[in-house]
């Protein structure tokens, strides 16, 4: 490592000769592959952006010039050149940096960005702000790796033309999203690549923007030439660069989807170090839907650019044919599309990560729920225990969705209950249904599971005790069982309830508890504010029933250790039981 | 009225000769202007769409063929031709129909649509559903009047190319949004108009779509010719029609922004029938911000295509110059832009209607709040008493925003408190701040108002009593005063609290109430589920305090009578007091 050790800041990049920059790129790629193989992370996007990042820091003057990455999971090379190479050099320091841009790490990072399609708008704001308060620096948005199809990006591009001052939008065109690209605009990018950027029809020019093309997007001199040309430009311009996703690691070049993100792997073979043969809920969902599709041409699965997160492998997508729709990164469109398909008699199932369903609140409310279109939304990974990066928290889907009228939001607690709810939802024609898919490995049912859920808001009493009732929602049903076990040791025979419905209160059951219960505990695997437990607290507000609500308190946490986080929120059976005993003691 | 009386359904349109259709258009326009002058409603958009609607129903076979309007406030002519002319013929029947498409009125309406930019995605779903379950009908999306710039519309257009089967997208290009258009794509539309649709650069073709242009978009034969050409087409195509907003009513043609929507007016002069000289909060906001802008170039107001709803007249926008930014209908971009401006040292104030802030939940959470950018969002019209169309309800902003970490959401109760909070927010650099702007006419303060709100979640105790505490949030502060007055008559000296902060509980104050209060009442002018009151109910869950939460119950209501609606939700001082007395009586 001759060069990377000497790069403390972009100023050190500027001192390198071209040949040295090429060697630097080789070193960076070696370090990237090594870290990724041991630590896991975004592979293809970062391997493809090494040269462009070197060239940007060679030409522009960060932090005076502002570079905004989106999706910021392609910012590893940027971190290596801005004083954070240590986090790629030694294994003990791998976790010194996040997988996204993070202003608290460096003045070279302008925003915390994890969701796609945001850089043009955020950087546009930096440019507008510069013009308001005075300044002459460059503002550069880096967008790509599939994020161009998101509504926010397209809104931003459309607006950018109006700014009228310096604004450089680097479009990293690696011909991929997480999976293959979808949407007509990618046809135009292809036309632009094939014509060397000269074809008459040009999406960016149609949006009012100036444009140049760099065919060799992994060639440092070509990139430098382009960036020098646009530096200090007096109007917005798109620099369209053609890069190779996964460049420099043969398996990643060969299978771009597999290598978008990877867990730790063996560098020689590309094989994953940790593979589990046990069934998880994502696999279960894909295989089950595929089975249903074969018997019913109306069933259709929709993804917004993330087929892999619910195990829709290329083989399965191929098998599903037109019954699988990838709309690209476009969650708003996905929800409205599902509403339309349902109104036309189809049976759409939109699978979306809890963190990304946030992008479509208005569409869930307006396009889906006001119209009462009987589509199904599968909310994936909704839990405190899945993604811990602050931008990808899956804590907020319950407050987000559960307060929208007409929506039935279900929380299954085991494998069979989940499948029964999914089957029921696909056939149900009264309301839209969302299902919070359990996380992790499947857990078999240990009690019979009904097939019909159309009598809404009827909770399941799993065991009837007295004094204390534990309403244990979805993933936290097992926590509820444990709380009851601890209480039993303390002489309390608690009632255990599987609420099943997040979106309504079983008022008859709640009223019946008043006769012989004094405390109701609610457990939900997500943010507590605006969620399920508060509805129960309000229901009992005018009564003598005590209600203790458990979930995560309102905060943005980042890269937390799950066990500590749960304890900090008193989400452990002994702590809940302790609170219950204390409450009873005070009565 | 020779023709309109005979039109029971589109079949009757098909029987007309060309000359008769022209006369029908004249009759329809006369009826539109008459109804609008007495009843109010969307003027310009509907006057411009008369011919296109006649031609569509002449060529296509609704309801077999599916027409989806967006923004559906341009569907009045469609209603007249689909069995609902009665609602335009006689004043008593004006309210038989809503101002938007409404499936419960007619099988010719496919969706309830009020928010913009949705038709391509919803109709795309109808087309995809048709292909899944089998069918050969045409699916037509009508989009325009500014709604093309919304992210959902752009996502939908991008996706449409992939459908590969019949799908007709009619772009109503009337050269306007509510105000003038903003965004680079409108430059391309202009180029297309000027070149008769032949210029090489074409946004729609760049998105992979086929395209034809109709220059005379208010000429029935031209429109029929185009629609005949695309009927039963085997792939997606855009029909770009050039129409005149406000056509046929001289004042509306002359001042398109003023006549986008109007209250009742005098046909001869165009003057409004009801004008109030009293100061309202929208006017106050615009004049106050304009004053601040003059002293501070960093202050900047942002709108997403709706300057008029907060009194940003063309004159005021002109005065603000580059300190006023209209991004077009693009709420997601507006929020991210504000975050960027704030990070660059600017002082952005994004004014947005409660119903439309819904479109930007993810941007508020990710781009703004995770980054803790000190921008201000003014939530306008947030109340049960403003818009009563189901698609425009302003009930949900509290559950939507108040559960997002880092955001400070304030609820002022009078004129001076609002201005103090606004001034404070613009200077505050710690967190993003949203303010729920009071609705209606301004109310002067009757108590001193602090200037600093940085000590978060400190409620104001307006009068200290005992037994009962009324937490009266924002617009419902006056209701709280009335509740206290009724309780006083019943011998109860209640504590009246102005919570000010929607996003947090004043735990010290709440704990202090435990000593001599038995009941806490929360009053919020919005949906109760997921809102402010439930946080209070949860806080007191483990205590003996009784909590009664008031707000609107979870439902989508449409065109309700406010007084009835309030009573149904027990939102009247006597009803609240009655509940309080009952609760006390049970203790």
UniProtKB/TrEMBL annotation, chains A, B:
EC numbers for this chain: 2.2.1.7
Cofactors: Mg(2+)
Domain Transketolase-like pyrimidine-binding: 279-445
GO molecular function, one term: 1-deoxy-D-xylulose-5-phosphate synthase activity
Highest taxon in the source lineage: Bacteria
Keywords from the named record: Isoprene biosynthesis, Magnesium, Metal-binding, Thiamine biosynthesis, Thiamine pyrophosphate, Transferase
This protein's pathway: Metabolic intermediate biosynthesis; 1-deoxy-D-xylulose 5-phosphate biosynthesis; 1-deoxy-D-xylulose 5-phosphate from D-glyceraldehyde 3-phosphate and pyruvate: step 1/1
Enzyme class label: transferase
Coiled coil region boundaries: none
NCBIfam families: PRK05444.2-2, PRK12315.1
UniProt record similarity statement: Belongs to the transketolase family. DXPS subfamily.
Subunit-level organization: Homodimer.
Protein name in UniProt: 1-deoxy-D-xylulose-5-phosphate synthase
Annotated source species: Xylanibacter rodentium
């Amino acid at each position: 490592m001759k060069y990377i050790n000497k790069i403390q800041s972009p100023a050190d990049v500027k001192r390198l000769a071209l040949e040295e920059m090429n060697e630097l790129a080789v070193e960076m790629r070696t370090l990237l592959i090594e870290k990724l193989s041991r630590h896991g992370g975004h592979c293809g996007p970062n391997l493809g952006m090494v040269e462009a990042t070197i060239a940007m820091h060679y030409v522009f003057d960060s932090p005076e010039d502002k570079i905004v990455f989106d999706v910021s999971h392609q910012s590893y090379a940027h971190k290596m050149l801005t004083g954070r190479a240590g986090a790629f050099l030694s294994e003990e320091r791998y976790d010194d940096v996040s997988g996204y841009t993070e202003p608290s790490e460096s003045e070279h990072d302008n925003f915390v960005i994890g969701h796609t399609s945001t850089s043009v708008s955020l950087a546009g704001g930096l440019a507008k702000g510069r013009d308001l308060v005075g300044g002459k620096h460059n503002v550069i948005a880096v967008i790509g790796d599939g994020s161009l199809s998101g509504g926010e990006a397209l809104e931003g591009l459309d607006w950018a033309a109006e700014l009228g001052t310096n604004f450089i939008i680097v479009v990293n065109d690696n011909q991929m999203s997480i999976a293959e690209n979808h949407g007509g605009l990618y046809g135009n990018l292809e036309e632009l690549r094939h014509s060397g950027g000269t074809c008459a029809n040009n999406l960016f020019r149609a949006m009012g923007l100036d444009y140049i093309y760099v065919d060799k997007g992994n060639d440092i001199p070509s990139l430098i030439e382009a960036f020098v040309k646009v530096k200090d430009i007096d109007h917005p311009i798109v620099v369209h660069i053609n890069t190779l996703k996964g460049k420099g690691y043969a398996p990643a070049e060969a299978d771009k989807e597999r290598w978008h993100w990877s867990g730790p792997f063996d560098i020689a073979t590309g094989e994953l170090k940790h593979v589990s043969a046990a069934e998880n809920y994502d696999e279960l969902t894909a295989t089950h839907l595929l089975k249903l599709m074969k018997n019913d041409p109306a069933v259709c699965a929709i993804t917004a650019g993330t087929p892999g997160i619910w195990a829709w492998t290329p083989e399965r997508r191929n098998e599903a044919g037109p019954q699988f729709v990838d709309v690209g990164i476009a969650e708003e469109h996905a929800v409205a599309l599902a509403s339309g398909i349902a109104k036309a008699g189809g049976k759409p199932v939109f699978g979306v990560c809890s963190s990304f369903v946030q992008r479509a609140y208005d569409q869930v409310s307006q396009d889906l729920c006001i119209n009462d279109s009987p589509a199904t939304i599968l909310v994936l990974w909704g839990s405190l225990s899945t993604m811990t990066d602050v931008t990808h928290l899956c804590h907020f889907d319950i407050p987000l969705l559960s307060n929208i009228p007409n929506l039935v939001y279900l929380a299954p607690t085991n494998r069979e209950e989940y499948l029964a709810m999914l089957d029921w939802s696909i056939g149900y024609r009264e309301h839209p249904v969302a299902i919070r898919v359990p996380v992790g490995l499947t857990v078999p049912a240990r009690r019979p599971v009904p097939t019909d859920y159309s009598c809404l808001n009827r909770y399941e009493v799993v065991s009837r005790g007295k004094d204390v009732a534990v309403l244990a929602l979805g993933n936290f049903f097992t926590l509820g069982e444990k709380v009851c076990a601890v209480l039993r040791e303390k002489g309390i025979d608690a009632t255990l309830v599987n609420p099943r419905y997040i979106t309504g209160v079983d008022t008859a059951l709640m009223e019946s508890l008043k006769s012989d219960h004094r405390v109701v505990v609610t457990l939900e695997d997500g943010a507590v504010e605006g969620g399920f437990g508060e509805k129960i607290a309000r229901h009992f507000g005018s009564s003598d029933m005590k209600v203790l609500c458990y979930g995560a308190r309102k905060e943005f946490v980042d890269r937390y250790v799950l066990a500590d986080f749960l304890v900090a929120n008193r989400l452990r059976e002994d702590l809940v039981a302790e609170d219950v005993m204390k409450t009873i003691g005070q009565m």
